[in-house]
Amino acid sequence: MRDQAHEGIHLSTTEETQPIRQEMLAALMGLIDETIATHLQIQVMTEELHAHSELSRACRGVLRDLSRLGPRTVPQLARGRPVSRQNIQLLVNRLIAEDLVEHIRNPEHKRSQLVRLTSHGKVLLDEMEKRETTLLSTLNLDLSLDELQAAGSVLHRFREALEQHHIEQER
């Protein structure tokens, strides 16, 4: 028999899934509350850290996505965010005007160009990440590497379960 710490949380409403126990629900709500509070604190921190930059958080996010994922179309960039394709297009247009990204030919599609970082965009992103890692390296964390990796794994699995539930509900 599995112990409670390893029981899966099922978000599906089908009959074959087990209902979430009250203790698990309370723990899940605690995780959600802490995730939101952490997200908000990260927003405050990054806004202060990048206050001198004229780039919005959304523009910085697009630069980060392009660095992490490589060249993408505007619709591909939009899929990873809770905003419209048109909103991402406006951000990309701004980043193009500032020579931080550029359009390149898309070998898989005649009309939908890829967006990629320019060398100027890469330098700016490197500077942003250096400021962030410098700040993060000064945090007084009472956590081990294993604990940090486990926390990341839990959040990843929780996000995947939410995404899967969303897909199932749309069917």
From TrEMBL:
What's a single GO MF annotation on this record?
DNA-binding transcription factor activity
- Transmembrane stretches in the record are none
Which positions fall inside the HTH marR-type domain?
A: 22-160
- Biological processes per GO annotation: response to stress
What PROSITE patterns does the record point to?
Answer: HTH_MARR_2 (PS50995)
**InterPro entries named among the record's database cross-references:** HTH_MarR-typ, MarR/SlyA-like, WH-like_DNA-bd_sf, WH_DNA-bd_sf
State the superkingdom.
Answer: Bacteria
**Name of the featured protein:** HTH marR-type domain-containing protein
Organism, scientific name: Ktedonospora formicarum
